């Protein structure tokens, strides 16, 4: 899938507020767009540096309400996406992608009734999904502390999803997919489309997705939960929903991010499973604490190496260019759990690559 985000780009400007003068002072600047090797030489350009590429960035493709309505009218007239994109580009110099048109289409064709309450709209969609599935795949927990009727957790898993878990549940991956629009997510859920969308709503629910890996190496969604809060109590309830209708003993390995592992008592629900950290999330966490490009390169190599000796050589290299604070952080938070994230210690576990 083509992406226009500048992943891995080191360019940054950081400013510190100066109370005495009531202005900001630049504290750090990296004024290039190159991914560097450990020795400081250029490995590759992080992304193209052209005006056309800049216009493809999502921030340059934001649509006003009037523009969305204009696109909606073209969609209702059965205009083809290519024609819509050309028309908008010619008129507003906005380089729309298919995903932008798709998001507007979903909004235009949404069945949400503005005259109904949130709960009434959700209830209507749940009934529609049950009618399509031929059975009820929902479990709902309500906010007991509220005087109003508020959904705390909306859990969904139909029979097809349960079968996928029964077939491929040895490796189960738990992911927090950040705060997406409650309305948009419900709509995508209803129609079996779980793609991300930038459409946001004042009702911001957290989306947890549980997936497995099939025999072709593809991830398959086996459960979805929307939660009003991102707490251990809330997600423990999600796991309670999951294990109440699925054979938890099927799971041999669970992958998740570190925060989730620390917050949730996985052993309570999957006592037989190995609990490992997602290497992508691990690498993203490293990037927050180790800012130098050479540090990031070494840490990525530490994740990927299959050799214990090479791992420790890389660790020594990392420490040689890190501050005492960074070394202490790594020792206290990561070096004592290498079996959860370092490839050389996970070679014999079920990970399907």
Description:
There is one protein chain. This protein is of the alpha+beta class and 353 residues long. The chain has 4 domains: 1-49, no CATH class; 57-109; 118-277, no CATH class; 280-345, no CATH class. It is 42% helix and 20% strand. Strands 5-6-9-8-7-10-11 form a 7-stranded mixed sheet, sandwiched between helices. The radius of gyration is 24 Å and the shape is globular.
What are the key terms here?
353 residues, alpha+beta, 4 domains, 7-stranded mixed β-sheet, 15 helices, 20% strand
Give me a quick take on this structure.
The protein has helices spanning 51-56, 65-76, 81-92, 98-108, 118-133, 159-168, 182-190, 232-245, 258-263, 266-269, 279-289, 293-304, 308-320, 324-333, 338-341; strands at 12-18, 23-30, 34-36, 42-45, 138-142, 151-156, 171-181, 204-213, 219-227, 253-256, 274-277. By secondary structure, the protein is α+β, with helices and mostly antiparallel strands. The chain has four domains: 1-49, no CATH class; 57-109; 118-277, no CATH class; 280-345, no CATH class.
Could you outline the blueprint of secondary structure elements for this entry?
Blueprint: E1 12-18, E2 23-30, E3 34-36, E4 42-45, H1 51-56, H2 65-76, H3 81-92, H4 98-108, H5 118-133, E5 138-142, E6 151-156, H6 159-168, E7 171-181, H7 182-190, E8 204-213, E9 219-227, H8 232-245, E10 253-256, H9 258-263, H10 266-269, E11 274-277, H11 279-289, H12 293-304, H13 308-320, H14 324-333, H15 338-341
Parallel strand pairs: 7-10, 10-11
Antiparallel strand pairs: 1-2, 3-4, 5-6, 6-9, 7-8, 8-9
